[in-house]
Amino acid sequence: MAVTLKEVAELAGVSRSAVSRTFTDGASVSDKTRRKVEKAAAKLGYSPNILARGLTTRRTKLIGLVSDNFHNPIFLEVFDQFTRKLQDCGLRPLLVNLSDETDPENSVRLLRQYSVDGVVVASSTLPPEFSKAFKDAGIPVVNSFGRYSATPDVHVVGIDNVECGRIAARELMKRGYKCLAFLGGPETATSTQDRYSGFSSELSAHPSIEVSYTFSGAYTFNAGRTEMQRLLENGAPAEAYFCADDVLSIGALSAVSDAGLKVPEDIGIIGLNDMEIAGWENINLTTIRQPIQQIINSSVELIVSMLDDPVRFPEARLFPCMVIERGTLRAP
Amino acid sequence: MAVTLKEVAELAGVSRSAVSRTFTDGASVSDKTRRKVEKAAAKLGYSPNILARGLTTRRTKLIGLVSDNFHNPIFLEVFDQFTRKLQDCGLRPLLVNLSDETDPENSVRLLRQYSVDGVVVASSTLPPEFSKAFKDAGIPVVNSFGRYSATPDVHVVGIDNVECGRIAARELMKRGYKCLAFLGGPETATSTQDRYSGFSSELSAHPSIEVSYTFSGAYTFNAGRTEMQRLLENGAPAEAYFCADDVLSIGALSAVSDAGLKVPEDIGIIGLNDMEIAGWENINLTTIRQPIQQIINSSVELIVSMLDDPVRFPEARLFPCMVIERGTLRAP
DNA sequence: GAACCTTATGCAAGCGGTTGCAAAATGAAC
DNA sequence: GTTCATTTTGCAACCGCTTGCATAAGGTTC
Questions:
Q1: B253 touches chain A (CB under 8 A)
Q2: In Å, how far is A129's CA from the nearest CA of chain B?
Q3: Measured between alpha carbons, how far is A74 from B187 in angstroms, rounded to an integer?
Q4: A280: helix, strand or coil
Q5: What's the whole-model pTM score?
């Protein structure tokens, strides 16, 4: 079915090299033969087989896009942006869903079998070691939404989760809340760990503020809701909560309103991410925006630059977050 | 970096064919050489390059997953399921984001360049001709969530959108609503067209019921909200609305409650999809469930079967939908 | 038009595999 | 120990494309 180089060469009356060259830019072909070849190619509907080409060039233009966050609506935005940006760069995402497995071994083997040019690990929950495995296998990798380190093993682009914790703490204090609480995701998620540590360290300088900490089992609506229900049943709740994720926040909101309490009058909530849904008028969540687009653009640019320079020294690129004020915190 | 067949062969002291054969099942190798080869392979960490293999076998195990629905949260569930199911079958999804372009030409060329074994077009908005283009290019294709046809050009698996329209109409009548309305997605989306036609044809048998129709620009929250706001401003609203999508419904809900009206007391709303968010307690949308998992499993099974039998006669697989009762319709 | 320098072209080998075919090894039957 | 049928094995060609190298074709200059 597919038409090959050889057929084009025959039709154009030139050698196979000639047609190969007209399809590789920077190669030396005269205008005359180029025209002949292009005409023949157009007639036959030829376009080169990238995979066969990759065999010799060692470039497949394939990028492994691996993630374990297939349940957080924000990741639809993430996939949308990643695919678009990669496509703009002439690259193709090979999607890998980690679902339950978190051992890098299989993914590494798999993506090697497909000779991907690089890998982006898009996850806020996987440990840095996961991404490291690709590097060790000689595959360029960037970890997006991953944990910041001053001395990263691999490229990391994302936000400063510790700083986000601080921002949340400051924002809540600014609004005069005296009794705060942190409602995190899974304790194993690096993002929760860091947000926790920023939040608590910022507050440690303010001993007059009362604060408590709790974690939910996952970054999901139900986890947030259940945890908030539990908190409400167990006596006096805090005045305001920093929920370390928007979905979690929305779950918490729903528990609060079911308990007959009003937001922000009785309880304040601030989330993190600013996913599209947070802006829906019937949710209207005050939250800390994570600059997804910048993170993704930067990630892709980084991976692109690694294609030419695979041993590039690992760097961390962090983008600032900002509070998006909506309706779930009282006025200062 | 990558270790090749040849190196394994040398280490094991056998021919290249021998090691190739131990990695192709069904090939004839003695236990003795197989063991030698496996040992050498393990030692070197060898696994075959699927792309190089594909050159001769014409099988890459790559499946193009193309979609233009990157803004509807239900599609995160769709991508999750698709990737998992494909992975279970030993296939790899090459994701294509149609974003704005809807001309199949580019996608066809692209996916051919990557020698994908098949394509699944996951979209409720693209016309059947889109998928047809792959078939014409000789690539096995199934259109998931696409438009049903009694004589389909390509395999279609999804729901009977016309029937869904009927179900909605019946459900609303059952609950005693006398003044109904249809709030669709874009008029160009095949799913909206069909839901519309089912809804209206069911009602045509009940002339006593008043009914009106309107369409929004997209399957998005804002589109639903804006459209509903417009309706509420323009005089007396209907008693109940069939919004042809959950996101649309949630947008409509938000407009209704902003207008100071209560759901379901003042206005009833029924959606379609039953995405996860519809079940969130603070949304609590009564809706028609689309059996996503079945659709996806069936789609993948179909594409798998086409790998062995590419000219398989096109069929349509439709799965029944059911009303999921929550809180946005009054009791019968 | 000869001499020289570029620029184009084709050949052939190779990328990492698979596979038809013929030869070698094994096993069964006598 | 033969003979013959059945596996196993290796050779070599091929999948579709690129690329180093040697040669051919064009261009300049005098």
A1: yes
A2: 20
A3: 28
A4: coil
A5: 0.94
